[in-house]
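The instructor's notes for this session suggest beginning with a concrete chain rather than abstract definitions. Hand out the sequence below and ask the class to guess, before any prediction is shown, which regions might be ordered.
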Amino acid sequence: MQKPVPTLFMRGGTSRGPFFLESDLPLDTAARDRVLLAVMGSPDRRQIDGLGGAHPLTSKVGIVRAGTVPGVDLEFLFAQLQPDRDTVDTTANCGNMLAAVVPFGLERGLIQAQGDETTVRVLTRNTGMQCDITVQTPLTPQGRQVSYEGLARIDGVPGTSAPITINFLDTAGSVCSSLLPTGRVRDQVHVEPPAGADFPAFDIDVTCIDNGMPLVLFRAGDLGCTGQETPAQLNADSALKARIEALRLKTAQLMGLGDVTSRNYPKMTLVSAPQAGGAINTRCFIPHVCHEAIGVLAAVTVGTACVLEGSVPHALTRLPEGARKAVSIEHPSGEFTVDLELDAEDPQKVVRAALLRTARLIMRGEVMVPAAAWPDAAQP
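After discussion, reveal the predicted structure:
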């Protein structure tokens, strides 16, 4: 009495989750979301009855279809679930899961390999963002196939894999109305504690920015942190998290995002001076748990903020010279380099953002969906 649904379980960057063809899921959004919640085992803190990994980074789903827009090869819808909630959020992007979209398309026959390398134009349906993704497709006795083995290494993932290059074409204002949704590179925000909160009102300088992911950046020291704390230390600090959440709700209003109580954005990012030779040091909340690393599009947005004179991170940042800058962003498990190219006539305008990721197919098969989640699941 369960319905089998074809899926590929894949790692994309430092995230992982099941990928589906859109045609294998219900067309109705509410029905689709019920199915996805059942697939992942949400809401349950351990997600014991599904494929979820009991963490936001492993509670993600990819939905893919062939391109329907001229010039686009694949279209990707990202769904963020939470272990202990019954929400399915498709409003923001995920650059890590994006890394697995082209391998999935090749595995499922939506696209064909072009040569030793295959470059594919992908549209992220969440925000309308497009990017060119290049994967390795060497010739094998069975024909050209996507390769998962190679020497590329990204912090936060053990071992090495084949490189996947993502070149973002237009990321400014992905969810917000513009790159700087408040119209300013820096804002001073007054935060009042909500009813029952055990902290005083405070003022803090922030940079609200969206170059692929809505972020709020602020100095770690302004909330009594060094910026070198481990994710476990930050996650255990309930007083700090209460202040960050109050700041998140306040800045979201300034960014035109409305009530984001049930949303996974904006991400809240503590910045501090680099300690390991990078450009800036970060601790990123996603939004209620500190990331063990940093998300792809969050890294792009942090890198962009670093080159904007007057922004909160700019004074802390060590940047290379020239219009093309490799911005190394330190995070709890290493660093993430974003390749930014600036406009020759406007050095505060980013015209290109590219980066390196990896992905791997972990499992192929069928996930069983209970009849309660998909009422027509009974098989004849």
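Then share the key points. Helices lie at 29-40, 95-98, 101-107, 231-235, 238-254, 296-306. The longest strand covers residues 359-369.
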